[in-house]
Amino acid sequence: MATDIATKASTRADGARRRKRAVRLSTWDRVAIAVMVGIPVFLTGALIWFPTVSSVLLSFTNWDGIGGLHTIHWIGTTNYRQIVTIYPSFWPAFEHNFYWLFALAFVGTPMGMLLAYELDKNIRGTRLYQSAFYIPVVIAPAIIGLITELVLSPQQGLISSLFADPRHGHVIDWLGNPAINIWAVLVFACWRHASYVMILYLAGLKALDPTLREAAAIDGASEAQAYFKVVLPALKPINIVLVVITVIEALRAFDIVYIINHGRNGLELLSVLITDNIIGEASRIGYGSAIAVVLLVISIVPIVVFVWNSFQQADA
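The structure corresponding to this sequence follows.
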């Protein structure tokens, strides 16, 4: 009896040793894991975290980018005080960024969701429609800026030709009038954003369990009730992604306005001010970094608040 127990114990011990040997990593395994983990971590740190931390630190300094690090002078919060008090372009740019966010959130995003919902019904030619609506996403934002110029040109543009008064020769300067050019440009920005939202939302709708809508229809819910009470809550993860993307797209807008008039005369944006101060003729690294930090805070705060509330409601 004792011999049998000892034999079983020995067998279990041998099995445990074999299992330990089975999970033991070789040198090449460790090298492969180190490479696969190390390269993404290095790239993330070098391309994202290092510039971010550097911008925060440089925002408290006065540096023109010329010379070594010993030429950097610490000036505290002077850059931030000057930005909000004596920099005339800051508050218009700040306001325009919120116009951009408002337009994408309440025009571009709902339009993209509506397109996705209609295309999910498998209407005739749905593949063709999807391809046509997706074209603006494929086009670079700089090209969208060129298209905006061609369409809204006061002399030969399509819109100006349609709205021109042939008797008086009156044309609307859509891009030169600072009272209306931001709204004219936002039409094209929403056009591109709606296409992006359409693809993301359509993917979520295709992955949705069809029995949810069937159950709502059996219970007598209308199409609108089924969407707002069944479909929309079921796509909550997609909705979170859409909110994050909308905020990021609105606050990093740059290419379209810079192509049109370098972000001036009514098209000022914070991203343009950052570029003008850091790599422009002014070469004020600390000043531009301070504006970048302001834009970073504006970007992060609404995203963090929305995601936090969403997960809190999910846990409840």
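The chain has one domain: 88-315.
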